[in-house]
């Protein structure tokens, strides 16, 4: 082939590629549902402030999770009593099952018209009753007393206001409201509130799941905490409702090295401190490979976001994954928020070794906490650590009881996902609903076997600066946002009756 022909071939290829890119961009329409219903503007019995006060009452009951539960059982019972006093219809008209350790977890059963028939498509709406504590040394950094349930002009303040008593109370408010209207669901509804989510749910949500297993009930879909409504993040969409289709797994490994010890003056070339430090550095410097394919929740997120971008270049990139996938994957690793979505992370969180400045350390250990992206496994992560350390003097072991595989990935095209999107958009008109990956863990780990699809979503509005309020200082939710939370469940519970009809 001559120069001229080569030039023609290159030019033709470029024309074809750009033609395909432009065509794909032009046909990449929004994946967002168009909704015609709208959520109500007000509650028939309570003002937004009164609803806020009902939630604030629960924040004054410090249901902190400790490994030794015996220290505060009565606090949880106090919360149960408070709930019963505020939601008389729920307690009268639904079946209440008290489950798990000391019967502290709650499962409400609301049988639908289809209950007990093969047509029933039950849903489980979940949240948790416990909270994390407030460390002594952060108390004075709070604007208010974290357990006083303070409400000011705009916000409800306190531990549990976004994680996760607002979920418990919003679900119950919506249920109480619908019961007062005589609503009877077509498909059954379960409300599940574990009492030990913050310490992994093995004594709470685990038993709620067992309850379903014993009765061979399969849940059509489950909604629990996780992703939220994100505002003002550095992406060219003002507000996004992200629904977690999956969550990352985790494994904690201990890296250790041993020696006979001796006086520091007799130092060998490397002490156990040197050996373990080098091993830690190798793990940090050699991350696991990127997991970014059409099946990745992050890939799906970008597919849904693409058509929402106003910027043409961005829209073109996210309409042509066949061409840009490798570049997107590369760019994702360079951004701190995106990179946790595409690869397993390694955080060196603890290190210890040595007892005295002039004694050679006999043992040094370091702890690495990995968060595992779907596509990797506990075993592949541990093997990766062993391979990159590549030093027979170093032991790599899984810390006892630590090892959770990444969750299964739920469907973003199921009727249930559609129902969820619809309910969100009835309360937040115009907000794009985007599937995504949740990078932390929830009680949903216990529900993998009983639910076909699991969605992690709360309509809490989060700006970048709000993220640190989770488990942190000045946890709060706005009064109006809490009302929207109730409306979301008010819509979802009603829409749930449509499942299986179309
Ligand atoms: Zn939580």
TrEMBL record:
Segments forming domain Peptidase M20 dimerisation: 246-384
Pfam families recorded: M20_dimer (PF07687), Peptidase_M20 (PF01546)
SUPFAM superfamilies: Bacterial exopeptidase dimerisation domain, Zn-dependent exopeptidases
Highest taxon of the lineage: Eukaryota
The UniProt record lists the keyword Metal-binding: yes
Keyword presence, Membrane: no
Listed InterPro entries: Bact_exopeptidase_dim_dom (IPR036264), Pept_M20A (IPR047177), Peptidase_M20 (IPR002933), Peptidase_M20_dimer (IPR011650)
Keywords: Hydrolase, Metal-binding, Protease, Zinc
One Gene Ontology molecular-function label: peptidase activity
Recorded family membership: Belongs to the peptidase M20A family.
Protein's name in the database: Peptidase M20 dimerisation domain-containing protein
Species the sequence originates in: Vannella robusta
